[in-house]
Specification:
The chain is mainly α. The chain has helices at about 5-20, 20-25, 45-50, 55-65, 70-85, 90-100, 105-115, 125-140, 145-155, 160-175, 180-195, 210-220, 230-245, 250-265, 275-290, 290-300, 310, 320-330, 340, and strands at about 35, 195-200, 200-205, 305. The strands form two sheets. It has a two-stranded parallel ribbon. Strands 2-3 form a two-stranded antiparallel ribbon. The longest helix has 18 residues, at about 125-140. The protein starts with a helix and ends in a 19-residue tail after the last helix.
Length: about 350
């Protein structure tokens, strides 16, 4: 069993960081102030309580976001609580045994089952076994789009056909037309089924990246200006820049995706954990597009909040990789960042390939 007290500092520290965000926003934080995947002020107490073996705070957190229809946070918290449950299964089993019909427990259970299945060689069979859990989570609250996002991921992992996926997609967007998680799941499905690796050679249909960009751009055009869906084209750009397969995407389309994400980033305060992943991804895209000053601006807006995505695509030490990039970007003068820090590895592991890490889905 993991030592509970050993877990607590990593949960408590981000809460202190959040309270210092305003001060840090005026300057780049020191390297030892940067944290990876920091929980926000609402999630942090739930994780601290979970470290003590308690689940009521987590259940209350998901009940609150569900009641408020705060679906982006709801989805984010489900993912993080499922991640905790992977390392502390006895915590989740106690929650499920005490409240088997709790919509939050059902949802975390469905996410956990998909997470566990994803890296396994027997993924297809394990995902088939997980299907009843996803169905139970969807039935627990008919308004909630998050079970449908999990179902979309499940369908991609089990290589479901287009018609079935479209049915799931329609059910998801009926519940939340601009839910970012569902849109990312759909984008990943498009990418996974348009770029197929045979042996060591990627074979991509002529329209694969075009389809991804078309989908992402239409979704962003239809979404409110402050919706995270505005960052979806930049996610498509990230996929293209790290894939190494498929026809060339016009440079102006990549720049337009970055511009849209920059506009979204500007709508949020600096050193904000809510937009940390969007800004970390945008930082990578800007560096690949040689937009160094705008990359430095995003670095300042990121503040102390590094995220595993996208840096775990390039290193087993995502925080160290981020700090290496940061050091070069903050150096005085036009100092080029080494190619090894910004280019995809020779065999990239990411959203558009068939072999993925556990967290990629």
């Amino acid at each position: 069993m993991v030592d509970t007290m050993a877990l607590l500092p990593s949960f408590i520290r981000p809460t202190r960081m959040t309270r210092r965000s305003a001060r840090l926003a005026g300057r780049p934080p020191a390297g030892d102030e940067v944290v990876l995947d920091a929980p926000d002020d609402r999630l942090s107490p739930a994780l601290v309580a979970a470290g003590r073996g308690e689940y009521d705070t987590a259940a209350g957190l998901l009940a609150g976001t569900r009641a408020a229809a705060a679906w982006e946070n709801h989805d984010r918290y489900v993912r993080r609580l499922a991640g905790f449950a992977r390392s502390r299964p006895e915590w989740f089993e106690a929650w499920r045994a005490a409240a088997p019909d709790d919509p939050g427990a059902l949802l975390v259970g469905a996410q956990l089952a998909v997470d566990r299945a994803w890296p396994s060689p027997g993924r297809t069979e394990l995902l088939r076994e997980a299907s009843p859990l996803v169905t139970a989570a969807a039935r627990a609250d008919d308004r909630d789009p998050v079970p449908w996002r999990i179902a979309l991921d499940h369908a991609r992992g089990s290589r479901a056909g287009h018609r079935y996926f479209e049915e799931l997609w329609e059910a998801a967007v009926r519940r939340a037309p601009h839910h970012y998680g569902c849109h990312v799941a759909a984008l990943r499905y498009l990418a996974a089924f348009c770029c197929v690796v045979s042996g060591d050679t990627p074979h991509t249909s002529d329209g694969s990246h075009r389809e991804c960009f078309d989908f992402a751009e239409r979704a962003a055009q239809d979404a409110p200006a402050d919706s995270l869906v505005q960052a979806l084209p930049a996610r498509a750009a990230f996929g293209y820049l790290t894939d190494g397969c498929g026809p060339e995407v016009p440079r102006e389309r990549l720049h337009a995706a970055a511009d849209r994400a920059i506009a979204l980033s500007a709508r949020f305060p600096a050193a904000d954990p809510w937009t940390a992943e969007v800004r970390n991804k945008l930082l990578y895209v800007l560096m690949r597009l040689d937009r160094w000053e705008e990359a430095r601006t995003q670095l300042r807006l990121i503040g102390p909040y590094a995220t595993s995505f996208p840096w775990d695509r390039f290193s087993d030490d995502p925080l160290g990789h981020f700090l290496g990039l940061r050091e070069h970007l903050l150096a005085a003068g036009p100092r080029p960042v080494p190619a090894g820090l910004v280019l995809a590895p020779a065999d990239p592991v990411g959203e558009h390939r068939g072999h993925v890490r556990a967290g990629d889905h």
